[in-house]
Amino acid sequence: MEDILAVSDLFLLTSEYESFGLAALEAMAAEVPVISTNAGGLPEININDYCGYLSNVGDVEDGGRGADKYLEEAEAKKEQHIFALESDAGGFSPRGFRLEMSAQKQDKIMQWSDLFQPYGLFETGAGGSGSDIQPLKKIGTALAGLNTDSQRYFDVHHAATDIFETVNKRELHLGSGVMAALIYLVSEYGLPPAP
Length: 195
Hints:
Largest sheet: 4 strands, mixed
Radius of gyration: 16 Å
Number of domains: 2
Shape: globular
Mean pLDDT: 84
CATH architecture of the largest domain: 3-Layer(aba) Sandwich
Oligomer: single chain
Low-confidence stretches: none
Strand content: 15-25%
Structural class: alpha/beta
């Protein structure tokens, strides 16, 4: 986890139920900004506007304000973000990546497609990344979103079964693994500079 956090620009923790928030603490220890819900013990460690930003559980618009605030901070500090990756399609089997970036950068990522195909990722190409990282497009960040097998999405999304215990752990691990692999490739081999 430390390797992934070391190359991360932002940590989003959107838990509906959270007893303590160890994942948020790990992100803070790696000096990665945290936007989290105000579930459970999270407000005690992720103090709003002090060491992170809090969002109300289930309030998508409130979460968007957190992403906007992160952009505001990045602009104020003149930070240059190279790449942002979001998983907003559920914890299902990964199928590929949606790439929201210049054609040159898409071409670079497409060169790595053969590395992902043995793991069932055949659906990589242009597409929307996700609302949580969308504001970063304004400062030229290359954006990507994880495509998953969406057949069961509405079986759990915003339903009573939309809890961590119902997530297929193998599918979640596969998604986490391919996201980490893509972050690694971007970190090691980079993306072409903006034209």
